[in-house]
Specification:
With 104 residues, this protein is of the alpha+beta class. It has 6 helices and 3 strands. 13% of the residues are buried.
């Protein structure tokens, strides 16, 4: 049996928990929509709210969750804050998820 080999490749329990938490963040369609906006270009809360036809407070709440989970980053310009994807991994996760659901 390959149990020993499989278990030796299994991540630690804390990593499994963190991975599950990361995937929970992707479990909200509003957050996915925000990530798609940010995959196109860096934006401020007001512009994201306008693009998605949502309130700024709703967008801010979701951006806070995305930032806490290291999926978006911020850049300050004076009093304005701009959001963008944290790194290329986020873009890849979105693309792979979309590709997976489009399979026959």
């Amino acid at each position: 049996m390959d149990k020993d080999r499989i278990m030796s490749n299994m991540p630690e329990e804390t990593e499994l928990y963190d991975l599950a938490e990361l995937f929970k963040v992707f479990g909200d369609s509003t957050r996915i929509r925000i990530l798609y906006v940010l995959s196109e270009k860096e934006e401020c809360v007001g512009n994201i709210a306008q693009i998605l036809n949502m309130t700024q407070s709703a967008i801010s709440h979701q951006l806070r969750i995305l930032k806490q989970n290291k999926l978006v980053k911020i850049r300050r310009e004076g009093k304005q804050i701009y959001y963008s994807l944290a790194d290329e991994h986020v873009r890849v996760i979105l693309a792979m998820g979309k590709e997976h659901i489009e399979e026959d």
